[in-house]
Amino acid sequence: MPLCHPRPQNKPRGDSVHHSPPEEEITPARDTEHRRVAAATIIGTAIEWYDYFLYAMAAALVFRQLMFSGLSSGASTIVAFLTVGISFLFRPLGAFLAGHYGDKIGRRKVLMLTLIVMGTATALIGLLPTYETIGAASPILLITLRIIQGISAGGEWGGAVLMAVEHAPVRQRGLYGACPQIGVPAGLLLASGVLAVMSQIAPGDAFLTWGWRVPFLLSFLLIIVGAWIRHSVEESPVFVEMAELAETESAPVKTLFRKHSPLVFVAALIFAGNSAVGYMTTGGYIQGYATDPDGPVGLSRDDVLWAVTGSAVTWLIFTLFAGWFSDRVGRRTSYIIGFILQFLGVLVVFPLVNTANVGLFFLGIGFLTLGLGLTYGQQAALYAEIFPASIRFSGVSISYAIGAIVGGAFAPMIAAWLVQTTGTTNAVTVYLGAMTLIGLAAVLSLRDRSGIPLGPEHEAEQNVSPIRWLSRT
To answer: Could you list the mean pLDDT of each consecutive 10-residue stretch along the chain, which spans 473 residues?
Structure first.
């Protein structure tokens, strides 16, 4: 498998791909720009999701003790995970705002803004006083900053994936689109890795006193790095062409829902099937469940953090593979295979976690990431190819945000409630299995549009609905 920024190849596509675009002439200058965009989307999204996942992990490991200490142990756990989910309710707002302005003023400007907003909110969390210091003001400020993170995350993903896919060679959209996708497991890897390091530097009470703050304050530095990298890339060629032709929509969100509401719904369910399962680790649930001293597993915090860090590596690898694989067999086929493997991962993860054996714990979450990667790497290309150019930023951002609410938003809280109610993780397995099957059904409802032209001059073709039972939007 090639790296994320390979030299373009001129190999023919498989039979499952329905479009056969003409070969592109790739000059050295364009090849260099492709590589620069790929690197920028990986690093930028990794920084954004580092910020976002850091909160989720801290909610399980720190905030339930420091910010919600006025509640009982069980209630503080549920409320801590509730604050993780609250941010998802504001991601559609970020998606609406970013989609509107991304389709009107460009992808690049919106991405710069989301990076700065996310990083600032994250760093400020690292400066927050605890409940013992300022009482109820502490959780209120924490929730406020988490909401700001949610708004930023809602706008980040759409811009990043469109920069990658719209810059990409036609025959390698899946691979290049996987670049911002691997920023997600890279962010998880970075967040869990930094927390694991700080847990060793500041063990025991020192971690709760000051050690947890360092990863949040590190975001100040990451803002500078990310902004510099994103400033170096050119605007999406599709948006440049739209601006030159004066074909930007005056109200892209309104047009999206008027013409493509069923497509938004189907696209959202595809991501919901992935995110509900993914947020077992990215949302901090498995970390909290496995380290709970009163729970059935009782693993050490260090062991769990390092295992999750290792699983982030396997997730990253299979996410990148999924993008490459989808260029060979089509987005739809690669998704079907991915959801089947994800379903198998759901069936085995909690039985292995519940053994309280570190090696089997890692095996369980590592196998789960195989399916997660194979239902995530191709998502950027699939989303870009199913929405018309003039409303594409709005379409991919809003679908992603809605899918995150339906799937991942409250998955950790639901899992915690199911375990407390039933006393077993079997109900969680049923819940995650059902969400996986919903994602699979949504994929089966779509035609494969791999390779469809993305430029504004092909809007008529793009406006034909990819939903199998609809001929037009």
So the answer is: 46 44 55 75 81 81 81 75 79 81 75 85 91 89 89 80 84 90 84 88 88 91 80 71 63 85 95 93 83 86 87 91 96 97 96 93 94 94 92 89 86 89 94 97 95 87 87 48
The distance from CA 322 to its chain's CA centroid, rounded to whole angstroms, is: 15
Which residue, chain included where needed, has tokens 């109610």? Answer: 421
CA pair distance 382, 364, nearest whole angstrom: 28
- Give SS3 for 446: strand
The token duo for 8 is 């373009």
What confidence tens digit (pLDDT) does each residue in 231-240 have?
777 776 777 7
CA count, 13 A, side-chain hemisphere, 25? 1
Which amino acid is it at 327? D
Residue 119 lies in a domain: yes
Question: For the domain that residue 199 is a member of, what is the CATH number?
Answer: 1.20.1250.20
Token digits of residue 380: 């950027």
Nearest CA to 247 out of 69, 462, 83 is that of 462
- String of DSSP letters for 291-319: H-TTSS----HHHHHHHHHHHHHHHHHHH
CA distances from 7 to 35, 68, 117, 278 (A): 9, 51, 34, 31
For residues 158 and 331, give the distance between their C-alpha atoms in angstroms, rounded to a whole number: 18
Give, in order, the Cα–Cα distances in Å from 312 to each of 120, 176, 178, 321, 357. 25, 19, 15, 14, 19
Q: Are 58 and 199 in contact (CB under 8 A)?
A: no
How is residue 315 written in tokens?
């997730």
Total of domains in the chain = 1
- The tokens describing 58, both together, are 């801290």
Complete DSSP assignment for 72-135:
-HHHHHHHHHHHHHHHHHHHHHHHHHHHHHHHHT-HHHHHHHHHHHHHHHHHHHTT---HHHHT
Give the C-alpha separation, 312 to 64, whole Å: 24
Q: Within 10 Å of residue 368's Cβ, how many Cβ atoms?
A: 30
pLDDT at 12: 37
Q: Is residue 262 part of a domain?
A: yes
User: What domain range is 205 assigned to?
Assistant: 33-229+250-462
Query: CA 451, CA 51: separation in Å to the nearest integer?
Result: 33
Run of H or E including 240: helix 237-244
Write the single-letter amino acid at 13.
R
